[in-house]
């Protein structure tokens, strides 16, 4: 085969190589665009959470009674949702409304808050917490007032929604003799020491 016969093949091979290099360059150049355009989740970036965005303060979801008992002006006139045990008594308020005291049931801090609700909402309370009784657990949503002008500056929640989270229950404390064992032993020791003292005093006479 002569040198003139290989020249067309070399020319075609060179052109094909140039086309392949051009295609490869285009693919590599477009890859970053594809990677940023689609993060692999198939989700719209507009739905992603912005960590620098401040929450909407018009509704504070699931606040605790402890937070409200130590609340500052930030909570004033905010909508809150709390869950607590109804205790004490249902007290008549105004215009068919009643007062119900809720306490935080998940701790021993005895934090409480007064809730103004309709008598119909209060009718769902089957028991009120006291000694030997666990009160109805209520989930209340309403507006918190740090110092309510309508109720002589009382810190309270004006309920807009009341639901029963758990029914109340009565329980009788079981008699546990072992609980008196230490007291009984100390009483016996006391009488023994008193008898010994009197015996020693009689001997000194």
From TrEMBL:
Alphabetically ordered keywords of this record: Hydrolase, Membrane, Signal, Transmembrane, Transmembrane helix
The residue ranges crossing the membrane are: 179-200
List the GO molecular function terms.
hydrolase activity
- What range does the record give for the signal peptide? 1-37
Q: Which domain of life is it from?
A: Bacteria
Tell me what this protein is called.
Answer: Hydrolase
Organism in which the protein naturally occurs: Ellagibacter isourolithinifaciens
